[in-house]
Write a structure and sequence with these properties.
mainly alpha
């Protein structure tokens, strides 16, 4: 027994044994009074003995210890001065479970303790027990409610008992920024106590981290990924004052956009992608340990069988290209859809990219239907069934790891709809063919079932079965349409054989063959020499206008597809090849005369060496190249070399090209003076001023642009 615990003690109270007030030496009335209250303390400790050390038992023992040995107040005196009810307070001292009605009582108890001078350490002891009683982040919020009062806490945070119950029932965890802002509003005011503010912020961070870690583990995220996401969200809130999201990662923190989205959806990414963030988020020792565990988890993830891996494996075994799938589904690029302003890319839109993205990400894609692609790739029912099962498993894993509340029949409906590439309104219209006016209502109901707003027990089995049949029917319609567009490999449609430009000479056959790789294979099969081959990359550049090959290669490309070089394509080549020579990175030709010679050379041969060997045996290729380079430098080599090249290019002194070259040679590449001499010949032959008749000159040098360039005349056309 002790005489009295001093109110200024800074040590937490040991609640294992009762602390009693000594009765020796006290007068008779005071001794009886002390004995009666000591007996009450023994009664509380005896009642809570079986449940000790539960938070409820410790709370009761702490309340009675502060009330009598420290404050020396009876129950009635204590509740009268604190302004609380006697019955509820007696339940708290006796270790009864806490109820919502006790929150206001305990807040008043803490306020009374503070007013009576009870030190912070003892008040913190009670708050710790209260937080432990409620548990998790909700317990931390309850702790703040007890400390500042429910009204003030709700006013500053916007969280009341109903919201706390909702969060607890749905196991939701708010962003860390919310916890940080609540602590700042409650304890970071003008007259704030820095030590108390730092303590509450640290406590809130620990409570939030534990709650978030538990949530991420329930979503089956790897422990390393969960720890990194928690540290990253805390860092983003403290340093940037933002909520962790994908756009923030790839816009401000330097992550790849796809990797950022994967990370936010609970997918592991290579350690190299997040290493720069780990340097800012984690201390060195923890970062090294995390890197080792992360790489081990990444190796495990790479060995997992996924829908994407299995799909591409089956596709490669059957030698099906992504471009074939894009053609069969009639996938159109952004310009065809009228959304060219929405996609800004340095490279051209590739239709096969939509296929690859749909397989990698899953989800809903309007044009790239998963069911259609599986049906086109799988060669038998068993393979198709296996791919569909893998897709459903992968999407279920995605929704579980990304934190979606969708589950049960709602999740099945959503994944089925994603697999078949359809929307709720399309499903509703399929079901309401006889009563179209009911489609909108049914679409809303389907969406509410998917997201869990309508419980599964409130739906009928026949209703769900009808929705699933409608979804599958739409998917099979898309598959049948795609199969009707499939053709035998190597058969080019008629409309893909009528090219009018060099770009179309590469783009149309590639579309007909369903890929530049197939066109490249066709050219390789028909080429007699390796120099006549065109790879998929170069064909793609030709189709986009970035490259203009020598004319024999254009002729070979068209002949490989079963057509011939038309006058329109040839005229277009004479327009664009000088532009290509003028703008190429390596050895650009800015003067018209060297462009004229090189244009004539490449109109007959792929290389200067081939041209000299086949047409000028007496001239070495180095001499021809040196002649062109000297003209580009502004020098004037002997006309004899130029005349040899012109003669070998089947030009005579009466031809337009010969006269143009001679006029440029005599006037030091002055195009205006040269054209004065050539225009008379053009009028005599009734020809327009066009690069087709004046090789090597660009439309700009002729006074035109690409839009106003006149058509060429077919008379005396080049062969």
């Amino acid at each position: 027994m002790i005489n009295r615990i001093p109110m200024a003690t800074h040590n937490p109270i040991d609640l294992a044994e009762p602390l009693l007030v000594a009765t020796e030496g006290l007068p008779s009335p005071a001794s009886s009074h002390a004995s009666m209250n000591n007996q009450m303390i023994r009664s509380v400790f005896r009642k809570t003995e079986k449940s000790f050390p539960s938070p409820q038992a410790q709370i009761g023992r702490l309340l009675v210890t502060v009330r009598w040995p420290i404050l020396e107040l009876t129950r009635r005196a204590f509740v009268r001065k604190a302004g609380i009810g006697l019955a509820s307070y007696m339940n708290l001292e006796n270790g009864r479970p806490l109820e919502n009605t006790h929150r206001d009582i305990l807040a008043r108890v803490l306020a009374f303790w503070r007013k009576q001078g009870i030190v912070r350490e003892i008040r913190e002891q009670l708050l710790e027990l209260l937080q432990e009683e409620h548990g998790g982040l909700g317990g931390f919020y309850q702790r703040l409610m007890y400390e500042v009062g429910p009204e003030r806490f709700t006013a500053f945070s916007g969280i009341d008992l109903q919201k706390l119950s909702h969060h607890k029932a749905r196991a939701t965890v708010p962003p860390y920024l919310t916890v940080q802002s609540i602590v700042q509003k409650l304890f970071g005011g003008r007259n704030r106590d820095d030590a108390l503010h730092a303590t509450r912020l640290h406590q809130g961070q620990n409570a939030w981290s534990n709650e978030k870690r538990q949530q991420l583990r329930e979503r089956t995220l790897e422990e390393t990924l969960a720890d990194f996401l928690i540290a990253l969200e805390i860092h983003v809130a403290e340093e940037h004052g933002k909520i962790l999201a994908g756009p923030l990662l790839w816009k401000k923190l330097g992550m790849n956009q796809q990797a950022a989205n994967d990370l936010m959806n609970g997918k592991l990414v290579p350690w190299d992608v997040v290493q720069h963030l780990a340097h800012s988020v984690l201390p060195e020792e923890r970062r090294r340990a995390l890197a080792v565990a992360w790489n081990d988890a990444w190796k495990t993830e790479q060995g997992r069988i996924t829908f994407e891996k299995e799909f591409h494996h089956v596709r490669e075994l059957r030698h099906i290209q992504l471009a074939e799938l894009a053609y069969a589904q009639d996938i159109r690029d952004s310009k065809d859809r009228g959304k060219s302003h929405a996609i800004e890319r340095k490279q051209n839109y590739r239709k096969s990219a939509a296929i690859r993205r749909s397989i990698r990400e899953g989800g809903f894609f309007d044009q790239a239907c998963i069911r259609t692609q599986i049906g086109l790739v799988a060669g038998d029912e068993e393979t198709e069934k296996r791919l569909l099962e893998l897709f459903f498993l992968e999407r279920e894993r995605h929704y579980r790891r990304s934190g979606s509340d969708t589950s049960g029949i709602g999740l099945r409906l959503r994944i089925s709809r994603e697999c078949n590439g359809t929307t709720p309104i399309q499903v509703a219209e399929e079901l309401c063919r006889k009563h179209p006016s009911d489609a909108s209502r049914l679409a809303t109901r389907l969406a509410r079932i998917e997201w869990g707003y309508i419980p599964e027990e409130e739906t009928h089995r026949k209703e769900i079965a009808g929705m699933l049949r409608a979804i599958d029917a739409i998917g099979y319609q898309k598959l049948a349409s795609a199969r009707s567009r499939q053709r035998r490999p190597g058969v080019i449609p008629e409309h893909c054989l009528h090219a009018a430009t060099v770009r179309e000479a590469a783009a149309l056959p590639a579309e007909g063959l369903r890929g530049f790789r197939h066109l490249s294979d066709r050219v390789r099969e028909n080429a007699s020499d390796v120099r006549w081959m065109l790879g998929p990359g170069r064909l793609r550049r030709i189709a986009s206008g970035e490259d203009c090959p020598p004319l024999p290669l254009v002729r070979t490309m068209l002949e490989a597809c079963g057509t011939s070089l038309s006058e329109e394509v040839m005229a277009d080549w004479f327009v664009h090849f000088p532009l290509h020579l003028q703008s190429r990175r390596r050895l650009p030709l800015t003067k018209p005369l060297p462009r004229l010679l090189l244009t004539l050379i490449h109109a007959h041969a792929i290389t200067i060496g081939d041209f000299c060997r086949e047409r000028i045996p007496d001239m070495h290729q180095a001499t021809a190249l040196q002649t062109i380079q000297r003209l580009e430098r502004g020098e004037r080599p002997h006309w004899h070399y130029l005349s040899q090249i012109l003669t070998a290019a089947e030009e005579s002194p009466r031809s337009l090209a010969w006269n143009l070259a001679q006029a440029l040679y005599e006037n030091n590449d002055d195009v205006a003076k040269a054209l004065k001499h050539v225009r008379l010949l053009l009028r005599k032959q009734h020809l327009n001023v066009h690069p087709f008749h004046l090789p090597g000159l660009t439309p700009e040098e002729l006074g035109y642009d690409a839009a106003t360039l006149p058509s060429f005349t077919t008379d005396h056309a080049r062969r």
